[in-house]
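Thread: quick sanity check before group meeting

JM: Hey all, I'm pulling together slides for Thursday and realized we never actually wrote out the predicted structure for the chain we discussed last week. Dropping the sequence here so it's in one place. If anyone has concerns about the input, flag it before I start.
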Amino acid sequence: MEESWASELGRKVDFQAQQFLSVRDFRFFQIEKLKRIAILLERQKNCLECKYAMRDLEHIVDDMDRLINSGVNRSEYEKRVDKILKHLKDNHQVYQAHHFTYTYSAIYALVGVVFGLLLSYGLFFGFNPTIFFLCSAVGLTVGNILGSKKDKACKRSGRQV
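JM (edit): ok, ran it. Output follows.
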């Protein structure tokens, strides 16, 4: 039985991580994410850029020792992985975990700040910290809830790294 490219790459990632990386580096550089990226790339059958990204991901895994253990090349590792993730996000609507939670929380918190300032100065003709912080907190909470729902939907549909 033929093994898929993603599972073969996953075994290679595990081997390279065991041989060359510390547990701290494994967690910090999110090496486990490389396996999920490989699965997502393998699903994209008709995308030529994904085929190139698959080859690039293989080179990243093969050079993991050089890229991560050398302080100079760590940024190269991050740039190459980010380039693949950017393509997946822009062309295939694949997002990183908690993407919408963070984005919506920030946007709604800003809306809450603006609304709090407008309400505070509109009603009291001066700054009222209670109204301001209440509106900010409500905006942050609403953004967190809506973003979390969208992240869960994204994860259910298999579009999350």
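AS: nice. The mean pLDDT is 89. The radius of gyration is 21 Å.
JM: adding both to the slides.
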